[in-house]
DNA sequence: AATTTAATTTAGCAATGGCTAAATTAAATC
DNA sequence: GATTTAATTTAGCCATTGCTAAATTAAATT
């Protein structure tokens, strides 16, 4: 499952409406077009995007196309986003992020709020380090207030 | 929270990378630009999109901008999508969806698979109903195989 | 086999979006 | 208060996207 493809697919108002409609009922393309005030071609193109993202499976039944929502993909996406949301800030790893060795001992993780933050990294040494475009990834700590 | 705005914000590869980076660490704009191989302006624009969606809050700390991910918005989005994914197909409501009264008695909900589907709605009466462009929203049942 | 019809695809157009480079803003240092 | 510097905004460019209308495809009916 290509998460980006799924996100792009549902981050369009019209396609989200289509998903919502198909989650509730079974509609033929023309009925969708009518509900959405769009041409059938436009709807067909949207359906293709949703199909390509794996969100729909289509099957011809008699004269009519029959689309089914693949709810698993939505469940997976929700889980994926939830995982992202629950991600904790890592401990500072200066060597990986490009801190100067002289600054490393001051690096701390800053979680939420500003309580744990100590002065470091953006001190005078850093500011004088170059022309500004060689600015390295720093260790992400900043001045306490 | 505007769900659509949030979805559009994170359905871009670069912005998703920014989110991921900021969820792990605290980066200044220039460090992000360097990591992503982009101009600072481009990064700033992406940050604005994420801010406008409510995904980030920015605060100036000394020389540097300090961005925090609003994890609540991500949690809410995940829950939202999960709700969507768990949506059950409603029972057929022909009067609402435009079925002809003669067809209503045959309408059924089709959940997953095709087992519960009966012939209805798309029968001969329906096909002869008009020039095709007056095609009403129908009750979404279709022929069994 | 010919016809009818639902759905898809294509061509062309307008709007949107992301990028760079340059100008501007705002805040910290001197 | 002048200078320095990080971040934002703006202007202009190109690629992408969504739309309509028309052409095409594919399947069911006759």
UniProtKB/TrEMBL annotation, chains A, B:
CDD domains named among the record's database cross-references: HTH_ARSR
Listed name of the protein: Bacterial regulatory protein, arsR family
All copies of domain HTH arsR-type, residue ranges: 1-89
PROSITE patterns per record: HTH_ARSR_2
Pfam families to which the protein is assigned, alphabetical: HTH_5 (PF01022)
PANTHER family membership: ARSENICAL RESISTANCE OPERON REPRESSOR, TRANSCRIPTIONAL REGULATOR, ARSR FAMILY
Swiss-Prot/TrEMBL keywords: DNA-binding, Transcription, Transcription regulation
A single MF term (Gene Ontology): DNA-binding transcription factor activity
The species this protein was found in: Caproicibacter fermentans
